[in-house]
Amino acid sequence: MAAESRVNPAQVKKAVAALAKHLEKVKAEGKTQLFEEDGDGDYYSVMLSTRRVPQKGSNKLVPVKIPNPLLNPDKTEICLIVKDHQGEGHKEAKKKVADMEACGVAKVLGISKLRNNYKPHEAKRQLCDSYDLFCADARVLPILPKLLGKSFFKKKKQPVPVDLTKKDWAAQIRKAAAATYAHVGAGTCIHVKVGTSGMEVTKVAENAIAAIDNLVQHVPRKWSNVQSIYMKTNESVALPVYNALPDPDEEKAAREEEAERKAEKIAAREKWRAEMESERINTEAPPAKKKAKK
Q1: Per-residue pLDDT averaged across 91-112, rounded?
Q2: Which residues have a Cβ under 8 Å from the Cβ of 183 and sit 6 or more positions away?
Q3: Are 133 and 61 in contact (CB under 8 A)?
Q4: Is residue 263 classed exposed, middle or buried when 0-12, 13-18 and 19+ CB atoms within 10 A define those classes?
Q5: How do 78-82 and 133-137 pair as beta strands?
Q6: pLDDT tens digits, residue range 42-53?
Q7: How far apart are CA 157 and CA 134, in angstroms?
Q8: Dist. CA 173–CA 27, nearest whole Å
Q9: Rg of the Cα trace of the chain?
Q10: How far from 190 is each of 57, 184, 187, CA to CA, in Å?
Q11: Residue-wise burial string across 183-202, b where 16 or more C-beta atoms lie within 10 A, e elsewhere
Q12: What is the largest CA-CA distance in the chain?
């Protein structure tokens, strides 16, 4: 059962309203952004800061459910990356997409074509900018970072995994398009988009409240490990919506966990040294003398 939210919904609504006014002011003054986050206009985002650095960083996207999808299902263009072998499997996937009900898939791209036709950086960048969302067969996800390059990760448009072993591909793709995604890295800050500049303020606030509650479920130790939560747009200041009070028990647990982690590293290092020393001794040992024949 999910823990009760510690964020005041009224505070979130107030923050969203203030950010909306900021966007209106920027638009009225005719200012343009020098550096847009992903080239797709302004987004409202939630930034969650944890008390502790995660033990392992990851580039994997964490799906976060929201009541109001950021992508318009009638206008969204999706690129579906599928598994194939030397081109075989790609045609079958294209036929299946053509026969199923509309779900926004504008292009089906096989791994072979991705590997052969998108080697230059410029080709990868153009591919990244050509579609609103990239979905990929979960079975090929591990090999995609090398094939796609930095553009996708810089613009936070890395492919979303979908289970294409199931029969209803359309349902899987619609489910992927309806969620937003958190980017959980190696640091203490988790970022997730919760609205676009074209959405109603009330819907952005609903998304933010739902995203915060769902995102906390992916944080180790849940609310105990949440230090603060902010809301912002691409280039606005970050507005606080939650700040945790000092927690002696959590701080003690953090120190104990850090000490345990250091002890594990030291033990692993000593084990490695012992193995290397044992291997050295065996290598340097003189060969056994052969017995003389009588």
Answers
A1: 87
A2: 59, 61, 62, 156, 190, 191, 192
A3: no
A4: exposed
A5: parallel
A6: 899 999 999 887
A7: 7
A8: 34
A9: 25
A10: 11, 5, 8
A11: bbeeeeebbbbbbbbebeee
A12: 106
Q: Cα separation of 147 and 95, whole Å?
A: 24
Dihedral sign (CA 234, 39, 151, 219): positive
DSSP β-bridge partners for residue 232? 45
pLDDT surpasses 70 at 86: no
Contact status, residue 180 vs residue 44, Cβ threshold 8 Å? no
Query: Cβ distance 26 to 236 under 8 Å?
Result: no
**Taking 80 as the threshold, does the pLDDT of residue 19 lie above it?**
yes
214 vs 229: CA distance, rounded Å: 13
Query: Distance (Å, rounded) from C-alpha 116 to C-alpha 111?
Result: 9
Q: Which segment, 91-100, 114-123, 273-282, is predicted with the most confidence on average?
A: 114-123
How many angstroms separate the CA atoms of 288 and 188, rounded?
A: 57
Q: In what order do the strands lie in the sheet with 61-64?
A: 61-64, 180-184, 189-196, 43-50, 226-232, 239-243
Per-residue three-class SS string for the chain: CCCCCCCCHHHHHHHHHHHHHHHHHHHHCCCCCCCCCCCCCCEEEEEEEECCCCCCCCCCEEEECCCCCCCCCCCCCEEEEECCECCECHHHHHHHHHHCCCCCEEEEEEHHHHHHHCCCHHHHHHHHHHCCEEEEEHHHHHHHHHHHCHHHHHCCCCCEEECCCCCCHHHHHHHHHHCEEEEECCCCEEEEEEEECCCCHHHHHHHHHHHHHHHHCCCCCHHHHEEEEEEECCCCCCEEEEECCCCHHHHHHHHHHHHHHHHHHHHHHHHHHHHHHHHHHHHHCCCCCCCCCC
pTM over 0.90: no
- Lowest mean pLDDT: which of 112-121, 138-147, 202-211, 284-293? 284-293
In this structure, the strands spanning 239-243 and 226-232 are antiparallel
Question: Would you state the structure tokens that stand for residue 100, as one six-digit string?
Answer: 């199923």
